[in-house]
Design brief:
By secondary structure, the chain is α/β, with parallel strands linked by helices. It has 20 helices and 16 strands. Its main location: membrane. Belongs to the GPAT/DAPAT family.
């Protein structure tokens, strides 16, 4: 018999057998399937999803495609490889993407390839830092608002299942999402002379491990979860069927329109680390590596412009090479000669704040800093003076600098990427009455110009390597006399007034968090850079 006549008969037999098996499973108590976006209401204000409220229930949720709006795993492996490893490791992972695409991102083989390239030779401490300081930002920006609000948030007991290694998602799910249990793949480790390292090999790959973990979550008495939420394209969805009463499938169309607003995040996103300012999909990383050599050349040219050229022509030259700069307001504190210099109180966004301030003033101005790398001090086109965190000695240093001329200070003591202002130290308010608040803000699209656990000497290079970095400098005018210590205010009151004034101008939220809070959360230290 000819092959082209046999093939249709085999296909027909498979279809009939699959139909009979589906009917048999349906009659034996298979959980109900419901599409979370089965209907669209006629009014645009209504939710696109038809998920009922979970109430006092147990929810088992697929993290990739259920809680998150996308099922893609590759971008998060790329973040781990780049931030926890190096650019070379990230490039190797990008080269392996064609193989991962053929095998499937969620298959054991596909995840095994990504896990090996990403984790082999990396210390657990490095992966923990990335999982704690880098990944939560990208996870929260891609949470599914419908699933989070209607199923996850009201549930009494919450379990999350991920196709990626558990170390990548566990910290976020437990600290931010209040998950009771996180089920994921495990990585093998080897202990050698200098500590523990990941081998990149997955422990016991396959569905058996996840089924055992789900049974432990629900209890040994055969209890079932009330609701399970899965994505549409995850091949592991069938693992949820024996352990849930109802199964909801989140459609791709619903996920695209279900972004969770920042004000409804489980926790405020104030601190995060890492260099990459974009989600590193395969196409985005391909474009990144193509642009990186040009970006480094642009960075060297832009740094040279700031150091060599006079202020009057440096702005035009910088604009020609792609830097967007906008200044507004009047920096003057009044007419007449003053015995001391003016204290410019600035929001702190990047290490080039002082350079941009001096460019807006069209004259050099001294600046005091805390932890700054020696290379940054050498390259700075203005005078930089390091404070030593001794209140009396720092007050004496600031007073001497004000006697010599104008001075810039960042009372936050560290940078913050998100629209928040950290607590202002009151020391500056006790030492000067002629103060001008300066609202500074920086925007990037490729690389962040700040780091907590990385190499600080790369900060200005990374910021100026962006295709079109932008800076905003706004002078808010002198602080009124009655709002200074000379007008009867305390240092804390003056610092809080200046902080709120800057927050209003920038549209940022004021917080009471300190520099130490940031570094202890992101790097596990107090933020001191050794010489």
């Amino acid at each position: 018999m000819a092959f082209h006549t046999v093939l249709p008969k085999i296909a027909t037999s498979w279809v009939i057998n699959l139909y009979r098996a589906a009917r048999k499973l349906g009659s034996n108590g298979v959980p109900n399937y419901r599409n979370s976006c089965a209907t669209k209401p006629s009014t645009g204000a209504a939710s696109l999803c038809t998920i009922p409220s979970a109430g006092d229930t147990t929810v088992v949720c697929d993290f990739d495609g259920g809680l998150l709006r996308s099922t893609a795993l590759f971008p998060y492996f790329m973040l781990m490889a780049c931030e926890g490893g190096s650019l070379i490791r990230a490039l190797l992972l990008l080269c392996s993407f064609p193989l991962v695409w053929i095998l499937g991102e969620h298959t054991d083989a596909g995840v095994g390839v990504m896990a090996f390239v990403t984790f082999v030779g990396i210390r657990p401490r490095d992966t923990d830092l990335v999982a704690r300081a880098v990944l939560p930002k990208f996870y929260m920006e891609r949470l599914n608002a419908h699933v989070y609000d209607q199923l996850w948030l009201p549930a009494r007991r919450k379990a999350a299942v991920t196709s990626a290694p558990r170390v990548m998602a566990e910290w976020f799910l437990k600290e931010y999402m209040a998950a009771d249990v996180v089920v994921g793949r495990e990585l093998q480790m080897v202990k050698i002379r200098h500590g523990c390292y990941y081998t990149g090999i997955l422990c016991r790959p396959g569905p058996g491990m996840r089924q055992k973990a789900l049974r432990e979550v629900l209890g040994a008495d055969g209890a079932m979860a009330d609701v399970a939420v899965v994505g549409t394209s995850n091949p592991l969805n069938h693992l949820f069927i024996p352990y849930c009463k109802e199964l909801y499938v989140v459609s791709t169309e619903c996920a695209k329109t279900a972004q969770l607003p920042r004000e409804r995040y489980p926790r405020p996103l104030i601190f995060h680390d890492g260099r990459l300012a974009f989600l590193p999909t395969s196409s985005a990383m391909h474009a990144f590596f193509l642009f990186l050599p040009l970006g480094l050349v642009l960075s060297v040219i832009r740094i040279s412009i700031c150091i060599i050229l006079p202020y009057k022509i440096s702005f035009a030259a910088s604009a020609f090479f792609g830097i967007r700069f906008r200044t507004s307001g009047c920096p003057s504190t009044g007419a007449g000669a003053k015995p001391r210099g003016v204290l410019f109180v600035c929001a702190h966004r990047t290490l080039v704040d002082g350079v941009m301030l001096a460019g807006a003033l069209q004259k050099p101005v001294s600046i005091v800093t805390y932890s700054l790398s020696r290379l940054s001090e050498i390259l700075a086109p203005m005078k930089t003076v390091r404070l030593i965190r001794d209140r009396d000695l720092d007050a004496k240093t600031i007073s001497q600098l004000l006697e010599q001329g104008d001075l810039a200070v960042c009372p936050e003591g560290t940078t913050c990427r998100e629209p928040y202002l950290l607590r202002f130290s009151p020391l500056f308010a006790e030492l000067a009455d002629d103060m001008v608040p300066v609202a500074l803000d920086a925007q990037v699209t490729l690389l962040y110009g700040t780091t907590t656990s990385g190499r600080k000497w790369l900060d200005p290079i990374a910021f100026l390597a962006n295709p079109a970095p932008s800076y905003r400098v706004e002078f808010l005018g002198p602080v009124p006399r009655d709002q200074t210590c000379a007008g009867g205010r305390t240092g804390v009151e003056v610092a809080n007034w200046v902080q709120h004034r800057l927050g209003e101008a920038l549209g940022f939220e004021c917080t009471g968090l300190r520099r130490r809070d940031k570094y202890m959360m992101l790097a596990g230290n107090n933020g001191v850079v050794s010489n």
